[in-house]
């Protein structure tokens, strides 16, 4: 008993481990993809559109075809001048990285730097890196200047000091660094499958916190400059988080070099695409430049300056070229422009609309409760799967509800775990009952027909009194004069002869889809057609009888060599309608066949002694098999309860033999 308890406990631990493994594997493999699908579908259904407060200017294929890339930086100075002095943009975000001076056009760099100085609403970009780019990072002597250019106040209120993996700033030219009034991180972070779903509203290098491009643009647009970073959110400091409250989680994702980066991440709240690669209104940089030059020449511009008035304007690259493309894969687009992604992040902040991260402990609790309901639910797999499906549907509705309220919970993992619980419960049931079932089979098989036992065990819940009317073939086989023979033998010898005899008969009956209904002394009553369905049961019964005859003849020779008595058998077969089913009481059942047709088989077998034959069938069986079996009509006899005599036939051989 103790050993059995230990083995069951070990099995339960293994199954719980498998469930936990399935939960974690599903979190990693399925949830992001499923959430991407629903994000795309529901965003389209809800027609969730980005605001018109942000517009984009892209150096796209059209721009690059007219002015060959790389552009000299004075062209960007022209864009800044146009947006400030003609279009009156409120905030300008320059998304391009400037890492080195233009040694071929130094005079144009001077124009670029002077333009930056004149535009205090301009935000310039940089990225942080791990120290693996040591030769291309900002020298330490410029870090103090760099810190001043990140001119937002971000106070660290976290209880747990959690640090990012950033060690350095990618190189910035001295003139660019000193000219910039506002610097911010343009880092876009990917998940392990290279899809961008999260971003960092603040980034951390050593002990310092720096604003993202989106947070800096939000600050410049709204005037909010002070922020607090807590363990679970970043928010505006002066109004108790009323203006802005961004939910964050500390975790690891990948930077653009493929390195793991730890930081404070929040999920992006995506908007409906309005054109290829964009969910915001976009203008080609060349069209804006030509509009600028047209206005300076008092000509009609290609693009109206009103398109940019009092708006946040993001300038950046967007061309599908391996050398200078700035495209990322997101849940709503395969090739999503990075400048539009930055616009989405700013929009999230302006709307104060974010996707709250899943509470892992709450999700785990729901999954555990639902799994326990399944484990302690129905015993049968079919009903348990229906129950699991019901719970999964409830969870899916709950997921859609939370999704519509911009709260993220895993869409697939709890459902996978629920079904896993159902299958593991079935596995546990099979493993723990298999041994005891096998012992039951072995024990029952010694007293009950194995075929009847299989039927009982296959559908044990339906085991009850009752049966059906069915046409079957009944085979009765008996040893001739066995009673007289056994009187001269010791009990052990009688038992030995019968056991060896029955062991020859039983497999043959099973081979032809029959079952042994009962042993009657030295006789065997076998049934074909029920409970094992067989349309050819009359012919199979005859084939069975012929093979039994062959085996007994071999056994007879063996007995003679061993000095044992010679045995001869008689076989009688009849086909007709009988009652087949369970009889007895609720406490003790027996599967059997009842009716005159059973008696006829027994009477026919008895006529073998009278007619000096060994294998007889009734006229009813004959009608089924006459085209397949050679027979000889021998006689007719009367059966009690029958008004007409019944013809009997001797079986000679199968016609194809």
Task: Throw out a few tags for this protein.
19 helices, alpha/beta, 43% helix, 22% strand, single chain, Alpha-Beta Plaits, 657 residues, six-stranded parallel sheet
Secondary-structure topology with pairs:
Layout: H1 2-29, H2 31-46, E1 54-59, H3 61-66, H4 74-85, E2 91-94, H5 106-118, E3 122-126, E4 128-129, H6 143-149, E5 153-156, E6 168-169, H7 174-179, E7 183-185, E8 198-199, E9 202-205, E10 208-211, H8 213-222, E11 226-229, E12 233-236, E13 245-247, E14 249-254, E15 260-267, E16 281-284, H9 285-296, E17 312-317, E18 327-328, E19 336-337, H10 338-351, H11 360-375, H12 381-404, H13 413-445, H14 450-458, E20 466-479, H15 482-487, H16 491-511, E21 514-520, E22 523-528, H17 537-561, E23 569-584, E24 589-594, H18 596-611, E25 615-618, H19 619-625, E26 629-637, E27 646-654
Parallel strand pairs: 1-16, 1-17, 2-3, 2-17, 3-7, 5-11, 23-25
Antiparallel strand pairs: 4-6, 8-15, 9-10, 11-12, 12-13, 14-15, 18-19, 20-22, 20-23, 21-22, 23-24, 25-27, 26-27
Helix pairs in contact: 1-13, 4-5, 4-9, 8-10, 11-12, 11-13, 12-13, 16-17
Write a brief caption for the model.
The chain is an alpha/beta fold and about 650 residues long. Helices cover about 45% and strands about 20% of the residues.
